[in-house]
Write a structure and sequence with these properties.
Number of domains: 1
Number of strands: 5
Structural class: alpha+beta
Helix content: 25-40%
Largest sheet: 5 strands, antiparallel
Number of helices: 6
Order of helices and strands: HHEEEHEEHHH
C-alpha cells in the first residue's frame, strides 16, 4: 500500500507540473486587470448578500480566487487571484497568486468557482500563501472543500471560506492542491528585485486597480 500511495503522489506531482506548463501565459497580463477583476468579484458577493460590512473587520488577510476546470477520470483545475494583507492604514498592494489542482479517481463534471478566503490569523494566512503544494485525499460531492480533508490547508476556524460555484462535479478523488505566487506577474508589476513580503508589507507602489479592490473590501 505505501508503494501504491507513493506512485499516486508522484503521478499527482506530474499532473500538477503539466497543468502548470499548460497554464503558462494564460493568466492575467497586468495587476491592474487582475485587481479590477477581483474588485468586481467582491462587489458581486456583496450584492448577493454573501458578504457584508463586517466580513473583513477582523481579517488579517484576504485571498480572492477565480477557479475553473473539469475532468473525466483525470481532472485539472486552475485559476488566478490575489492576496492582500491588513496594514495599519488599510490593505497591502495585491500579491498575484495561481491555483492549480490535479486529481485522479472516480470523478466527472466541470465547475467554475469564485472564492473569497478571509483569514483571522497571520499564521493561517502565511501558511496558505507561502507553503504551496500539498497532497489531499478526500471523498467529496464538490470540486473544492472548505475543510475536513487530510492535509487540508483551510481546516479550522481561522479561515472563513465564501464561494459561488456553477456546474456539477462529484466523486471520490485523490489529488494535489497547489497555491503559488505568480512571480512573473509580481516582478513585471512591481520590479525585478521585489519580494512577496515587500508587496504584502506595503513597500511597493500599488498598481492601478488596487484602490478599487480596497474600496470593495471596505464596502
Amino acid at each position: 500500500m505505501p508503494k501504491q500511495i507513493n506512485r499516486i503522489q508522484r503521478f499527482i506531482a506530474l499532473l500538477i507540473a503539466g497543468a502548470s506548463l499548460g497554464a503558462a501565459g494564460c493568466g492575467p497580463d497586468t495587476m491592474a486587470y487582475q485587481s479590477l477583476q477581483d474588485a468586481r468579484l467582491v462587489d458581486g458577493f456583496r450584492l448577493d448578500g454573501r458578504i457584508d460590512d463586517g466580513t473583513f473587520t477582523d481579517a488579517v488577510g484576504v485571498v480572492v480566487l477565480e477557479i475553473g476546470g473539469g475532468g473525466l477520470g483525470i481532472g485539472f483545475y486552475g485559476g488566478h487571484g490575489v492576496a492582500v494583507r491588513r496594514l495599519d492604514d488599510g490593505w497591502s498592494p495585491p500579491l498575484p497568486i495561481d491555483y492549480i489542482a490535479g486529481s485522479i479517481g472516480l470523478q466527472i463534471g466541470g465547475t467554475s468557482t469564485e472564492i473569497i478566503l478571509v483569514f483571522r490569523s497571520e499564521e493561517a494566512f502565511n501558511d496558505f500563501v507561502f507553503k504551496g503544494t500539498r497532497f489531499l485525499a478526500t471523498a467529496s460531492g464538490t470540486a473544492i472543500r472548505a475543510s475536513g480533508g487530510v492535509g487540508d490547508p483551510l481546516e479550522g476556524e481561522e479561515t472563513v471560506v465564501i464561494s459561488r460555484t456553477s456546474g456539477l462535479y462529484g466523486g471520490a478523488v485523490i489529488g494535489g492542491l497547489g497555491v503559488s505566487i505568480d512571480e512573473k506577474l509580481m516582478r513585471s508589476s512591481y520590479g525585478e528585485l521585489v519580494l512577496p513580503l515587500d508587496v504584502l508589507g506595503g513597500h511597493v507602489d500599488p498598481p492601478a486597480g488596487a484602490i478599487s479592490l480596497w474600496r470593495s473590501l471596505d464596502g
